[in-house]
C-alpha cells in the first residue's frame, strides 16, 4: 500500500517524485524500490502532458471557471520555457534536463514537459531529457531524504 502512495504522490503536479521520495524515506521504505516506483509514477503522465496539455490549456484559457488556472499554467510553462531558451541557446535539452533534475520549487517533469511542448521542442529528445532529469532529481532527493534518515537513526 505504501508503494501505491509513493506512485500516486509522484504523479501529482508540483509535488511529483520529490515529495514521493521524501514520503518513502519517512515511511521507512527501501530507497531503490521507492526510487523505481516514483520514477514510473512521475514519468507516466509526461507523454500525455507533451501531446495534449497545451491543446487543453489553450482550449480552456477563456472558459469561465477554469480559465484562470489554465492561463496560469500556460504562463508558467511559457515563462519557464523562455528562461531555458535565454540561458542555453544550443544546449536546450541539457537545460531541460537540469531544469527538471534540480529539485527547486516550480521545476519538475510536469513544468519541464509543458515548457517543451509550448516551445515545440522535439518529442523524443524532450522525453529523454525529462527522464534523465527525473532520474537526477530522484538521486538528489534520495540523498537528502534517505541520508537524513540514516544520519538521524
List the helices and strands and how they pair.
Blueprint: H1 2-10, H2 16-26, H3 31-43, H4 46-60, H5 67-88, H6 92-101, H7 109-118, H8 123-152
Helix pairs in contact: 1-2, 1-3, 2-3, 2-8, 3-8, 4-5, 4-7, 5-6, 5-7, 6-7, 6-8, 7-8
How would you characterize the overall build of this protein?
The protein is mainly alpha-helical and 153 residues long. The protein has one domain. Helices cover 78% and strands 0% of the residues. The chain is built from eight helices and no strands. It has helices at residues 2-10, 16-26, 31-43, 46-60, 67-88, 92-101, 109-118, 123-152. α1 runs antiparallel to α2. The longest helix is centred in the last third of the chain and has 30 residues, at 123-152. It is globular and about 45 Å long. The model has no long low-confidence stretch (mean pLDDT 90).
Amino acid at each position: 500500500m505504501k508503494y501505491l502512495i509513493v506512485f500516486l504522490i509522484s504523479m501529482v503536479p508540483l509535488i511529483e517524485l520529490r515529495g514521493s521520495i521524501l514520503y518513502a524515506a519517512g515511511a521507512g521504505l527501501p530507497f531503490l524500490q521507492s526510487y523505481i516506483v516514483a520514477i514510473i509514477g512521475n514519468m507516466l503522465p509526461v507523454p500525455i502532458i507533451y501531446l495534449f496539455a497545451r491543446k487543453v490549456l489553450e482550449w480552456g484559457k477563456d472558459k469561465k471557471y477554469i480559465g484562470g488556472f489554465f492561463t496560469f499554467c500556460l504562463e508558467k510553462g511559457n515563462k519557464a520555457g523562455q528562461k531555458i531558451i535565454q540561458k542555453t541557446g544550443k544546449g536546450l535539452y541539457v537545460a531541460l534536463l537540469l531544469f527538471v533534475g534540480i529539485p527547486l520549487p516550480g521545476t519538475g517533469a510536469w513544468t519541464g514537459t509543458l515548457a517543451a511542448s509550448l516551445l515545440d521542442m522535439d518529442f523524443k529528445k524532450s522525453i529523454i531529457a525529462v527522464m534523465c532529469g527525473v532520474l537526477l532529481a530522484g538521486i538528489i532527493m534520495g540523498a537528502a531524504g534517505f541520508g537524513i534518515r540514516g544520519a538521524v537513526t
